């Protein structure tokens, strides 16, 4: 036995004479951006290296008019809603290639969120007024679909995975879904007019909802008490046309994209008041994501075809902006572990 292992070690030295011992996994933090495109050839996903703030080419072709995107908790898959072809594309983030066939869902799939255990994806079907659920192990839809309010857009899941919160943009309320039964918990929660974006605090106690048109009407953030499913009043005034929202990992601040004002509002979640001044960004900021360490926020500027990056310590923009594809819409951040080295022991034993 000792002679066998001695021979294997000698063989290993000959094959891999300079191989160092195995090192801990490296972590890549990448931002994935849906480019909703002016034509089908422009329907892609851009990938940004958040260390260098540069795009990784080539872009990833997906379905027609990609709007929503969510990353599995292990960082290995990105799910993209293709609004004009009623499907979801799945990207392998280790290769940045689409895997399998597009998954059929409801009409005009918009927002998407994935459960904390990574087992299911919930998709808001805008035209059908319902929610599709995908089994991520088989990448097939779980039926029946779940009825909600009118024109569901935004979607978020509690950290314990037990509840899904959906903004019903034309019902001016929020639906809550029990993920164990995949049924709606009634009554719905009234919020401001035209609710779009939604984010839940890391401790699972509150949901923040953006509401408002692009004419100065409403323009508020509603706060929902998750334990009672009631709104905490008063609503928080923000800029014109609030759309995307993201909360820092420590739960202390919420960042909101003001589409018509071309800036970002920041809310102190302890006092539920806005921190001024607002942060100027590009033209038509529409969605936002925050890095896992909370140090930076990435914003899609829909009309500028680029990404703004905010330093969350100083609440100032880090220039230059990052060019991406046509009409960048949604953004999600993936934490992807990669092994940089292999040891002899891992090869042979």
From TrEMBL:
Gene3D superfamilies: YVTN repeat-like/Quinoprotein amine dehydrogenase. It comes from the Bacteria. It holds the Pfam family Lactonase. This is Cell surface protein.
């Amino acid at each position: 036995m000792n002679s066998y292992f001695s021979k294997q070690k000698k063989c290993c030295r000959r094959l891999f004479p300079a191989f160092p011992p195995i090192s801990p996994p490296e972590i890549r933090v990448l931002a994935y951006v849906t480019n909703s495109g002016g034509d089908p050839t422009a329907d892609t996903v851009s990938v940004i290296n958040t260390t260098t703030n540069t795009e990784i080419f080539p872009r990833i072709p997906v379905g027609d008019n990609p709007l929503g995107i969510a990353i599995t908790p292990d960082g290995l898959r990105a799910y993209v809603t293709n609004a004009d072809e009623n499907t979801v594309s799945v990207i392998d983030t280790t290769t940045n290639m689409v895997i399998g066939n597009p998954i059929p869902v409801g009409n005009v799939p918009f927002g998407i969120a994935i459960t904390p255990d990574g087992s299911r994806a919930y998709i808001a079907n805008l035209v059908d007024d319902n929610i599709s659920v995908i089994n991520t192990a088989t990448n097939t839809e779980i039926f029946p679909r779940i009825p909600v309010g009118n024109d569901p857009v935004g979607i978020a899941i509690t950290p314990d995975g037990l509840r899904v919160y959906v903004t019903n943009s034309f019902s001016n309320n929020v639906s809550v879904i029990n993920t164990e039964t995949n049924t709606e918990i009634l009554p719905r929660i009234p919020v401001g007019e035209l609710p779009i974006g939604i984010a839940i605090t890391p401790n699972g106690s509150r949901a923040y909802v953006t509401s408002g048109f692009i004419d100065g009407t409403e323009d508020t953030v509603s706060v929902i008490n998750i334990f009672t499913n009631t709104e905490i009043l008063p609503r928080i005034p923000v800029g014109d046309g609030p759309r995307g929202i993201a909360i820092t990992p420590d739960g202390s601040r919420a960042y909101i994209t003001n589409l018509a004002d071309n800036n970002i509002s920041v809310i102190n979640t302890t006092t539920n008041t806005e921190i001024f001044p607002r942060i100027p960004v590009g033209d038509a900021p529409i969605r936002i994501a925050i890095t896992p360490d909370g140090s930076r926020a990435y914003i899609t500027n829909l009309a500028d075809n680029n990404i703004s990056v905010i330093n969350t310590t100083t609440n100032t923009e880090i220039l230059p902006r990052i060019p991406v594809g046509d009409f960048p819409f949604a953004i999600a951040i993936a934490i992807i572990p990669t092994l940089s080295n292999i040891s002899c022991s891992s090869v042979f034993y």
